[in-house]
């Protein structure tokens, strides 16, 4: 009810100003671990205990300011970033657009952040019990050696992260998505995994939805060969389905409800390409428990949300958790892990 009353006021602000106000309000709250979830939702993955399957996607907490406040809203894990080695301003404003008629967002932020050193100090705060914290790393726009930037990110932030995400799929840094090409990806992951070493945190790789079948096969093979711990499917899309909003023609990555079908298809593609040998995280257009459950049945061990919070409110994760419990029990599953991939044949 509070969100319904506040939303019209927030929507009077431009999207980026409303987001900054939201972060400032969250900073007033005390840090807390995840709200109590039903035991059916618990999983242990990569040596980490997840109280539930719903995580906060990166982009919301770019500077690692409020990740430790998100457990109270039903999030079992929160991913900060994207963080680059050096501070950068990102692209000129306006660069974040609400597509209200479509329940979507277009962003061309450009990895705006204060740099990894500043964020590391905030990530070093005492961690709320039970909250898994991920850190999303990227390369500076003007970097002459992007592999070196990712290695720097691992070295700078591994000590402060329960897992690290290698983000090579943002459409807003020119040339970044070229790192998804087989040879470039192999070089990148070789450097990242060597920097991580034997005792470092799990490494997740975040890929774009705008891929061809050969790209999917190549990414899956390289990720498995290099020992990546999980794949995040997927980032925003540069494609434009039919949109009603007048902002639909803005350049940047599209997220929210219109991304749902494409992201679900890519999840199924990667489930088949990996043969279930690597955990997948489903992202993109998830706005309710039915959509979250479909993503889990299609092969996602965990899910992340962000854009839907703009339209559905801060308690979305808790609502999804409750809905998943009902659906899992209705379908006879004893744990959420039993439901992962049941709709996606591996043969």
Describe the structure.
The protein is α/β, with parallel strands linked by helices. The chain has a single domain (2-339), classed as TIM Barrel (Alpha-Beta Barrel), CATH 3.20.20.70. Helices cover 33% and strands 17% of the residues. It has helices at 2-10, 15-27, 116-123, 146-157, 182-196, 213-226, 260-274, 289-297, 307-312, 316-330, and strands spanning 43-45, 48-50, 54-56, 77-83, 96-99, 104-107, 132-137, 163-167, 203-207, 230-233, 253-256, 280-283, 300-305. An eight-stranded parallel beta barrel has the order 3-4-7-8-9-10-12-13, surrounded by four helices. Strands 5-6-11 form a three-stranded antiparallel beta sheet, with no helix packed on it. A two-stranded antiparallel sheet has the order 1-2.
Summarize the structure.
This protein has helices at 2-10, 15-27, 116-123, 146-157, 182-196, 213-226, 260-274, 289-297, 307-312, 316-330; strands spanning 43-45, 48-50, 54-56, 77-83, 96-99, 104-107, 132-137, 163-167, 203-207, 230-233, 253-256, 280-283, 300-305. The chain is α/β, with parallel strands linked by helices.
Tag the structure with descriptive keywords.
347 residues, TIM Barrel, 8-stranded parallel barrel, 3-stranded antiparallel β-sheet, 10 helices, globular
CATH superfamily: Aldolase class I
Radius of gyration: 19 Å
Q: Note the overall shape.
A: globular
Average per-residue pLDDT, rounded, comes to: 95
Strand order in the sheet with the most strands: 3-4-7-8-9-10-12-13
In which range does the helix fraction lie? 25-40%
The CATH level-2 architecture is identified as: Alpha-Beta Barrel
